[in-house]
């Protein structure tokens, strides 16, 4: 802070007070030498109004007190209170006091209004500064968002390229692997047809093993190829799940009757999705519920849906063999089997299909199961948007 500034303020205050005293003195002298006491004494209003500029919160009151005292002294000196105490001249000093203190009231009202305006102005200044800071922060955030958006678009472009390369690789690899496997399978069939009867028990066992392994490998490659194709050339539309489940139950009629299985579902909603993928999703879950059933107990499969406002939650519940909690995350991975192939056939692809399909539809899938009691598979799907939206 500049040390000369307080000195300048002090000098300014002294000058203002001296001017106020000079004006009050001039009015007092005029009041002593004039017969128009009210008119002259009312000029003290100039001092009161001038006191606005004086330092101190109560400067106007101090000035009004001094002016009132001078008015009283003037009235005594001129003899107004002695010569005619009941006349108009006797009331001159009272009227002057009323004028003086009325001016004090007006000054206080004006000062209060001015203080309020100053406070409002200060608040507006603070708000303006805060707003500028917020704008600066928003500008920085906007710039960061723009940079992140650019990076995200670049990453998405790279991801699309890599996905296309992966799809091509999977397709080419699957095709290239199937050719030698097909050759091995054909040669194995020829050997079995021509020389099977000439082989001993060990030779027959080896030939059967080669044929079985070739068939299993062919199925695995086809399953891998189908897994890679899920999500390509997708056609999203409204899918009536009630009608879809009816079709699945009719298609699995022979399997369901053989296992004496019952599928319960009612009033399933219409969702937005790919009909082929959704059919694969529900068919895999229902098929698994039938496959992994308990011996001697007819499978009971219940399909329900729940509206959660932002999405739909589905549950496929069964009374099968159940799954250990330690395997909950494992079962949705590709080629993961929890049971030996001799007991339950399959490739370990069904639930991997389900996970990929649900994620392609913007949802998630999870399981709640107890070993020996049954399993409940939960997943979410997007609601069907109204045409008005």
TrEMBL record:
<dbReference type="InterPro" id="IPR003661">
    <property type="entry name" value="HisK_dim/P_dom"/>
</dbReference>
<feature type="transmembrane region" description="Helical">
    <location>
        <begin position="90"/>
        <end position="110"/>
    </location>
</feature>
<dbReference type="InterPro" id="IPR004358">
    <property type="entry name" value="Sig_transdc_His_kin-like_C"/>
</dbReference>
<keyword id="KW-0418">Kinase</keyword>
<feature type="transmembrane region" description="Helical">
    <location>
        <begin position="36"/>
        <end position="54"/>
    </location>
</feature>
<keyword id="KW-0472">Membrane</keyword>
<keyword id="KW-1133">Transmembrane helix</keyword>
<dbReference type="InterPro" id="IPR036890">
    <property type="entry name" value="HATPase_C_sf"/>
</dbReference>
<dbReference type="GO" id="GO:0000155">
    <property type="term" value="F:phosphorelay sensor kinase activity"/>
</dbReference>
<keyword id="KW-0812">Transmembrane</keyword>
<dbReference type="InterPro" id="IPR003594">
    <property type="entry name" value="HATPase_dom"/>
</dbReference>
<dbReference type="Pfam" id="PF00512">
    <property type="entry name" value="HisKA"/>
</dbReference>
<feature type="coiled-coil region">
    <location>
        <begin position="138"/>
        <end position="165"/>
    </location>
</feature>
<dbReference type="InterPro" id="IPR036097">
    <property type="entry name" value="HisK_dim/P_sf"/>
</dbReference>
<feature type="transmembrane region" description="Helical">
    <location>
        <begin position="61"/>
        <end position="78"/>
    </location>
</feature>
<protein>
    <recommendedName>
        <fullName>histidine kinase</fullName>
        <ecNumber>2.7.13.3</ecNumber>
    </recommendedName>
</protein>
<feature type="transmembrane region" description="Helical">
    <location>
        <begin position="9"/>
        <end position="30"/>
    </location>
</feature>
<keyword id="KW-0175">Coiled coil</keyword>
<dbReference type="InterPro" id="IPR005467">
    <property type="entry name" value="His_kinase_dom"/>
</dbReference>
<dbReference type="Pfam" id="PF02518">
    <property type="entry name" value="HATPase_c"/>
</dbReference>
<dbReference type="InterPro" id="IPR052162">
    <property type="entry name" value="Sensor_kinase/Photoreceptor"/>
</dbReference>
<feature type="domain" description="Histidine kinase">
    <location>
        <begin position="172"/>
        <end position="385"/>
    </location>
</feature>
<keyword id="KW-0808">Transferase</keyword>
<keyword id="KW-0597">Phosphoprotein</keyword>
